[in-house]
Amino acid sequence: MRVATRPVQGVLARRLQLRFACQSQAAQAKSDAEAAHCKACGTCVNDWKLTCGSCNHIVAPPSSAGPFDVFGLPARFALDGPALQSAHKRMQMRAHPDRFAPGAGGSRLEQAEAEAASAALSSAFRVLESPWSRAHALLLQRGRDPLAENAGTARSGVDAALLMEVMEAREVIDSRPADPEQLKQIVDAATSRLSVAAEELGVAFATAEEAEAAGDDAAATAALERAEALVVEAQYRQRIKDQAEAAAEAAQDRR
């Protein structure tokens, strides 16, 4: 006796179609939720360009937008600094809240959106203009946070010589009265090392990006771990530099 399989196959096919349709709808719903929405006409703005493509109303970027997304840049460490500054200035002029004030032909709704857009632009620019915060943002995108309190590998691998250098610098900074010449030496040494480390950071990310493109996971991991170590080192050195500069200013004020 033959068993009729076609009806069963038809049922399975319909179930699969429904499943795929539900998955597609869920993915679209997630995409819409993460996209910006025009407060004026309700249009879903997937490709954020500061203004709504339907009604030209100012639109703040979605909360899911990262610093690279805000400026429409690829998530890479190397970037054109002057071009970033120019884009930031141009976009801030377009989104300036005063342009959308009710007395200037705008509305409270538009002004609120402009304020949110301006704040997002400023925040993204601050992240991208510094090599250290830019590197941290890229590491976060890869699920790595060397500055987190529970970060293990990056912090546990801090060079012993660096820790000793930091301790010695702290002794000079905390001494009363602090020696201005020694404070200057600390600031100069930290500034010089941060400059060199920034170049090393660029090499580490270039190596990681090349390895990722080639599918070399081991090389990419090694390069990213090097980048993490440099970010942690920079945090130590920047803190000591700031503290030494503050101590030097305080010593100058006491004179």
UniProtKB/TrEMBL annotation:
Can you quote a single GO CC term?
A: mitochondrion
Gene Ontology terms, MF aspect = ATPase activator activity; protein-folding chaperone binding
Q: Which PANTHER family match?
A: IRON-SULFUR CLUSTER CO-CHAPERONE PROTEIN HSCB (PTHR14021:SF15)
Q: Which UniProt keywords apply?
A: Chaperone
Q: Which InterPro entries match?
A: HscB, HscB_C_sf, HscB_oligo_C, J_dom_sf
The record's comment on protein family reads: Belongs to the HscB family.
Q: What is this protein's record name? A: Co-chaperone HscB C-terminal oligomerisation domain-containing protein
Provide the GO biological process annotations: [2Fe-2S] cluster assembly; protein complex oligomerization
Q: Where is the Co-chaperone HscB C-terminal oligomerisation domain?
A: 159-244
Any one Pfam family here would be HSCB_C
